């Protein structure tokens, strides 16, 4: 075992001499956390909606007033009055406005006659987020229009009461678990995979292989040192990221302890995966070439940026196998819900079984000779 | 006495290509033994089999009494290896490199603390012990590797092209170091080289290897003696008479004579006899010899004799099979 520690010692001494490695593995996940977190997390605001009133009656005026109230209050959209439907549609196609709310002729008469009155929303549906927001807002506007001006004291209509179990989670916090996993992965790839293959190509491994070190000691040395480096990256991002994202009481010691356990298990699972992929590779270009592909393949299906329930079937299969999925789930439980181990037992179990299988396979494939 | 290295009919094939074709030889304890041959001759494959980096396809070798296949760990404990590539850790200091390898070899702490300063002194790197290896010159890095290879006090030292890529001063420096290691530490040294002068100056015995076969094995002197003498005399005469060239041509052992003004180049099968006869003839004719140079057989001539081609040509045109093999290395 002392030979294993000689390898670990060597790797960590080298690591200490190249602080740039730590910086590289942390910068990308942090930049992504901040930029994606604030780019995608906010509510859509200041959309431009044309209002074309072809009716002019009292109910139509009420629709316009309700639209104006939304514009003045939530600022989700601003209304622009158009007299001509044609020019509103032209502006819509040219991207000057995001939607056209048309109050057709006869609207007021149909309202009074209770004869299926309609208003129309013609929208630019090339942007899903924008169009979903507009449809939601206009739906509430129509509901508000339908409410009687003097409501009965006891309503017969069913209402939905929403109870939120946890404090509000901004998107940047939702992204943080994925960023921690990514920083672990970055370190596994750069500090583990790339250095491993570069050392092999430079002939450094020959130096090891002529010593009396056993195959198991050698494999253990590579993987323990890789895990230690990845854990350092993961813990750093966990703390810095929690502060940036504003996780409540980020330095709670019990939670830090639980998070550290998940970071260690995740780091070992990812090192095992990397080692399995790289164990027979000799070309230094290889880890660099598959780095991006692997990152996309593991990060996005994991539920780090979007819930897996929205994936097509084949991608859900990837999500089920992907160790990121379980790591992200465990970090979400701990960071966003502050749960105990009970909530993440399954995640830890999967990651440990995954590590055991990958590491066994990699060790079998590892050659003690050139 | 059992030989330090006993190679028995060792073969290594890669698919259809045979890199080493059944070589056998012994290396005695305390010898500096050279494997001489061009790139792709199979030297590195041979040394890699001996140091347990590659399993042989058939045959075996016994190193310090241990079989390279069945007792690989015994072999590894007995040997120090300097691979062809510079494999020291550039980011670590000189001393750290030695320390890590001492630990990899399981050298106990007290022994490490005694040996490492001693080795640093030996390779003249004591004042550089805290410098990162990346800041050292190529020659110094080689010396770090030599010290690293000795950190567990091996019995046999393997060096794969130890001076390739070094400047002439560093090369001589490495030679001197290896000679001192041999004499002070009673080490057996096996090295590969494609430098004739290196093999000539350094080695007690030389094996000439080409295309995976052993072409010749002996001391440098005997190898040179075995080649039919092929000396060139370059003589500058003071005012040679006309027809002097024909007179020289008739001397014993002379194969051909060419001249340019008063300088004559005489090719001879027997340098000493021709030289004596030429001096007698000149004295008899009253012609003064202004300058005389005799070039004797070199290992280059030996290489040509045994392989049918010059080493420098062989270095340049490695066959396609050789290149395929070299890429594998």
Write the layout of secondary structure elements.
The complex is a heterodimer of chains A (370) and B (329).
Chain A: H1 2-17, H2 19-41, E1 47-53, H3 58-73, E2 77-82, H4 85-93, E3 99-103, H5 107-113, E4 120-123, H6 128-146, H7 171-202, H8 204-209, H9 215-245, H10 253-278, H11 285-299, H12 313-321, H13 323-336, H14 345-365
Parallel strand pairs in A: 1-2, 1-3
Antiparallel strand pairs in A: 3-4
Helix pairs in contact in A: 1-9, 2-7, 2-9, 3-6, 7-9, 7-10, 7-11, 7-13, 9-10, 10-13, 10-14, 13-14
Chain B: E1 5-14, E2 17-27, E3 32-36, H1 43-50, E4 58-63, E5 66-67, H2 72-78, E6 79-82, H3 94-104, H4 109-122, H5 138-149, E7 156-160, H6 168-185, E8 188-193, H7 196-202, E9 205-210, E10 213-218, H8 220-226, E11 231-237, H9 244-249, E12 254-260, E13 263-268, H10 271-285, E14 289-295, H11 299-307, H12 311-316, H13 320-328
Parallel strand pairs in B: 3-8, 3-9, 6-7, 7-8
Antiparallel strand pairs in B: 1-2, 1-4, 4-5, 9-10, 11-13, 11-14, 12-13
Explain how this protein is built:
The complex is a heterodimer of chains A (370) and B (329). Chain A has 370 residues and is mostly helical. Chain A is built from 14 helices and four strands. In chain A, helix 3 (58-73) links the parallel strand 1 (47-53) and strand 2. The model of chain A has no long low-confidence stretch (mean pLDDT 90). Chain B has two domains: 5-225, Rossmann fold (3-Layer(aba) Sandwich), CATH 3.40.50.300; 228-295, Lrp/AsnC effector binding domain/regulation of amino acid metabolism (RAM) domain (Alpha-Beta Plaits), CATH 3.30.70. In chain B, strands 6-7-8-3-9-10 form a six-stranded mixed beta sheet, sandwiched between helices. In chain B, helix 6 (168-185) links the parallel strand 7 and strand 8. By secondary structure, chain B is an alpha/beta fold. Chain B is 39% helix and 27% strand. Chain B is built from 13 helices and 14 strands. The longest helix of chain B is centred in the middle third of the chain and has 18 residues, at 168-185. Chains A and B meet through helix 1 and helix 8 of A and helix 2 and helix 3 of B.
């Amino acid at each position: 075992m002392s030979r294993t520690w000689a390898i670990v010692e060597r790797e960590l001494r080298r690591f200490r001499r190249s602080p740039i490695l730590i910086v590289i593995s942390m910068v990308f996940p942090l930049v992504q956390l901040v930029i994606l977190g604030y780019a995608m997390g906010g509510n859509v605001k200041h959309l431009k909606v044309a209002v074309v009133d072809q009716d002019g009656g009292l109910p139509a005026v009420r629709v316009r007033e309700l639209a104006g109230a939304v514009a003045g209050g939530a600022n989700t959209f601003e209304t622009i009055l158009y007299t001509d439907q044609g020019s509103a549609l032209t502006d819509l196609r040219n991207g000057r406005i995001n939607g056209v709310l048309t109050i057709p002729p006869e609207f007021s008469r149909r309202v009074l006659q209770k004869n299926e009155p309609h208003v129309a929303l013609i929208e630019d549906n090339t942007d899903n987020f924008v169009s979903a927001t507009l449809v939601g807002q206009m739906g509430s506007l129509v509901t508000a229009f339908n409410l009687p001006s003097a409501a009965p004291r006891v309503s017969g209509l069913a209402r939905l009461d929403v109870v939120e179990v946890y404090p509000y989670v901004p998107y940047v916090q939702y992204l943080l678990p994925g960023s921690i996993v990514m920083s672990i992965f970055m370190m596994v790839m750069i500090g583990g995979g790339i250095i491993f293959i570069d050392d092999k190509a430079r002939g450094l491994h020959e130096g090891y292989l002529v010593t009396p070190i056993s195959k198991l000691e050698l494999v253990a040395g590579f993987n323990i040192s890789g895990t230690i480096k990845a854990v350092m990256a993961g813990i750093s991002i966990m703390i810095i990221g929690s502060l940036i994202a504003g996780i409540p009481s980020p330095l709670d010691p019990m939670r830090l302890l639980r998070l550290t356990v998940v970071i260690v298990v995740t780091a070992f699972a990812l090192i095992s995966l990397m080692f399995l992929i790289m164990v027979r590779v000799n070309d230094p270009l290889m880890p660099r070439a598959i780095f991006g592909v692997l990152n996309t393949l593991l990060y996005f299906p994991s539920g780090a940026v979007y819930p897996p329930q929205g994936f097509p079937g084949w991608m859900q299969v990837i999500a089920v196998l992907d160790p990121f999925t379980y790591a992200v789930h465990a970090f979400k439980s701990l960071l966003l819900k502050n749960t105990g181990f009970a909530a993440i037992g399954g995640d830890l179990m999967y990651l440990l079984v995954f590590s055991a299988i990958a590491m066994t396979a990699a060790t079998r494939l590892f050659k003690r000779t050139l | 006495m059992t030989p330090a290295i006993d190679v028995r009919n060792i073969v290594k094939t890669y698919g259809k290509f045979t890199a080493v074709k059944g070589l056998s030889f012994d290396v005695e304890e305390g010898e500096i033994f050279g494997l001489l041959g061009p790139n792709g001759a199979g030297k590195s494959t041979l040394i890699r089999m001996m140091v347990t980096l590659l399993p042989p396809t058939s045959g075996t070798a016994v190193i310090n009494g241990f079989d390279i296949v069945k007792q690989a760990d015994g072999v590894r404990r007995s040997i120090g290896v300097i691979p062809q590539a510079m494999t020291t850790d550039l980011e670590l200091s000189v001393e750290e490199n030695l320390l890590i390898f001492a630990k990899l070899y399981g050298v106990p702490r007290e022994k490490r603390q005694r040996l490492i300063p001693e080795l640093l002194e030996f390779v003249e790197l004591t004042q550089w012990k805290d410098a990162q290896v990346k800041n050292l010159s190529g020659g110094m890095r080689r010396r770090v590797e030599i010290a690293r290879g000795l950190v567990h006090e091996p019995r046999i030292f393997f060096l794969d092209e130890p001076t390739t890529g070094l400047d002439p001063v560093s090369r001589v420096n490495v030679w001197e170091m290896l000679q001192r290691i041999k004499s002070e530490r009673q080490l057996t040294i096996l090295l590969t080289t494609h430098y004739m002068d290196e093999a000539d100056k350094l080695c007690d015995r030389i094996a000439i290897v080409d295309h995976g076969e052993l072409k010749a094995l002996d001391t440098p002197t005997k190898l040179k003696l075995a080649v039919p003498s092929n000396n060139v005399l370059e003589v500058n005469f003071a005012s040679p008479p006309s027809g002097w060239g024909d007179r020289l041509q008739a001397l014993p052992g002379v194969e051909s004579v060419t001249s340019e003004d008063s300088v004559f180049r005489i090719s001879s099968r027997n340098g000493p006899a021709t030289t004596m006869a030429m001096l007698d003839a000149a004295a008899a004719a009253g012609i003064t010899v202004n300058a005389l140079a005799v070039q004797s057989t070199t290992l280059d001539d030996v290489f040509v004799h045994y392989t049918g081609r010059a080493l420098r040509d062989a270095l340049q045109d490695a066959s396609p099979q050789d290149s395929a093999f070299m890429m594998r290395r």
